[in-house]
Design goal:
309 residues; two-stranded antiparallel ribbon; plasmid; 3% strand; Rcorf142; mainly alpha
Length: 309
């Protein structure tokens, strides 16, 4: 791949990144990570392509350690996605409405909740694929519940995919028929939770439906309260912590080992796989937050460690 010349503007002159001191290069690179791990990995890769000397400076620093860790977490998140999201789409509940006597089946909504924390690690194509799988499900409660399960992760989707899910939820919300349809309740929660992400067109459709059927207004208000309560609980969850590179290395190694050894289909049902995988997905999300916090607070010149092994 061809090296690029990256320029850094400073004072009255523009300097090539390759001419800057190592510690300055590393400090610049520390500001490239964002909340989006895919964007972060791309930013760091582009920066390192400026020249061999820039790559060497970054790779030998805490930023290089962080970059390799992001790549490892990304690989783990992709493994979970492949486990949770069948390539041919989500299977629907067997012999519905009969119960699953052994409790072995994993609904689409459970699979989505499982990989939700790592959706931000997926490529745009994979994000679109999961939306396609949801919208290709048979209409009804399972599909509406799957849409509801995506609510906490809508901000990780591209605008077009987000719109498609919200459009379908609004269809369920305003459909004719009894107010107590499960699909209508799931949809009401989904659009209420996504209230701040709704476009004007969406809000207009929702308000028109509520004006025609006051019962829908009461349902929406109730689900809005539930959604805000859930958001409040989520906001009190544990935030990122600065940890040593050795501690982070151990966390990432444990994640990789759990994926290899604890999710074997020979010993677990699909339901139990999702239960275990959901905890691992949460660990991946937390490891990224901790690693980013660690990098942000790292002093200049701190020595590298074994995190990237």
């Amino acid at each position: 791949m061809q090296e690029r010349e990256l320029s850094v503007l400073g004072g009255d002159k523009t300097e090539s990144a390759a001419t800057l001191p190592n510690d300055i290069l590393v400090e610049v690179a520390k500001h490239l990570p964002t909340d989006d791990p895919v964007e972060t990995a791309a930013n760091l890769t582009s920066f390192k392509l400026a020249s061999p000397s820039v790559r060497a400076s970054v790779d030998q620093s805490d930023v290089g350690t962080f970059h390799r860790s992001v790549n490892r977490l990304g690989a783990s998140s992709k493994a979970l996605y492949d486990l949770a999201v069948p390539r041919n789409g989500f299977a629907e509940y067997p012999n519905y409405p009969e119960p699953d006597p052994a409790g072995e089946f994993a609904l689409a909504s459970q699979r989505i909740r499982t990989i939700g924390p790592t959706l931000k690690f997926q490529s745009p194509a994979r994000k679109t694929a999961i939306v396609n799988h949801i919208l290709n499900m048979s209409e009804g409660g399972e599909q509406a519940e799957a849409i509801m399960s995506m609510t906490s992760h809508l901000s990780d989707l591209e605008r077009a995919d987000k719109r498609r899910l919200i459009d379908r939820a609004i269809e369920y919300f305003k459909v004719d028929g009894p107010i107590n349809y499960d699909s209508r309740h799931y949809a009401a929660y989904a659009i209420a939770a996504a209230h701040n992400q709704l476009e004007l067109e969406h809000k207009s459709q929702i308000f028109d439906a509520m004006a025609k059927r006051p019962q829908l207004a009461r349902l929406y208000a109730d689900e809005r309260i539930h959604a805000q309560e859930h958001l409040g609980l989520a906001s009190t969850s544990e935030g990122p912590h600065e940890r040593s590179n050795k501690q982070l290395a151990t966390d990432i190694l444990q994640i990789e080992q759990k994926i290899r050894t604890e999710l074997l289909p020979e010993t677990l049902s699909a339901h139990d796989q999702m239960v275990k995988a959901e905890g691992i997905a949460g660990s991946i999300e937390k490891a990224y937050r901790d690693a980013r916090a660690n990098l942000t607070r790292a002093p200049r010149g701190r020595s590298n460690s074994d995190l990237s092994r």
